[in-house]
Amino acid sequence: LQNVPIFQDLTTNELEAIAPLFVERTFKKGTIIFFEGDLGDEFFLIESGVVKIYRIDYAKEIILALFRDGDFFGEMSLIQKGLTRSATAETLETSTIYTLVRSEFYQFLERTPKLSLRLLEANMERLRKANEQIYDLTFLDVRMRIIKVVHRLAEEHGIIKQGNLMINMKLTHQQLANLAGTVRESVTKVLQELQEDQIITIQKKMIYINNLEAMKKLFPPPT
Ligand code: CMP
């Protein structure tokens, strides 16, 4: 738990008090952890794996967030009493997740102001990203949105592999489309163009960024 950003200011005593209350669970790839509209009774902390947070409307889906090791989710409907899950959570990889029941989560928050502040800080970061998503969906064209999504993934999930920057997350063109608010065909077309311009390379379905700076020039800077 020490390596989890929201727990980083806690003392060993505080960590030792909370650690035994978490229950470890493993979810296979493609498992729905909860649906939008469900009653929320647990808080989730990802030990390993990837979780997609999304909303769906008939066949269309918009991905609100991708979470992985060290990230938490499911806090909103616990803190906003009487409200249900604001989105659906599904594993994109087999994931080991710690869960904490509502009453324990709540008591721990009340007793530990430092944790509340960290949670608030993390949620502000999420609000910033959500504002960015609103901006992009409102003002950017499809091509720019796709490029910006790939750029953001490179910044958030990029690792250096054999000297090259690689997005360390396996995503299908459909999933990229659901992040950018568009259709799969557009993603395929734009990724093809980026490869022709030697801005990216795709190998074994993984995206490598050859020129992050050139990519950044293809969409407007944040306001
Ligand atoms: P909850 O509403 O309980 O269940 C869905 C969870 O998804 C929510 O808590 C948050 O943890 C997370 N979530 C919902 N919307 C967003 C968003 N826009 N950005 C990041 N996380 C979100």
UniProtKB/TrEMBL annotation:
Pfam families: cNMP_binding, HTH_Crp_2. Residues 6-126 form the Cyclic nucleotide-binding domain. One of its GO terms (molecular function) is DNA-binding transcription factor activity. Gene3D superfamilies: Jelly Rolls (2.60.120.10), Winged helix-like DNA-binding domain superfamily/Winged helix DNA-binding domain (1.10.10.10). PROSITE patterns: CNMP_BINDING_2 (PS00889), CNMP_BINDING_3 (PS50042), HTH_CRP_2 (PS51063). Residues 140-213 form the HTH crp-type domain. Keywords: Activator, DNA-binding, Transcription, Transcription regulation. One of its GO terms (cellular component) is cytosol. PANTHER family: CRP FAMILY TRANSCRIPTIONAL REGULATORY PROTEIN, HTH-TYPE TRANSCRIPTIONAL REGULATOR ARCR. This is Cyclic nucleotide-binding domain-containing protein. It comes from Paenibacillus foliorum.
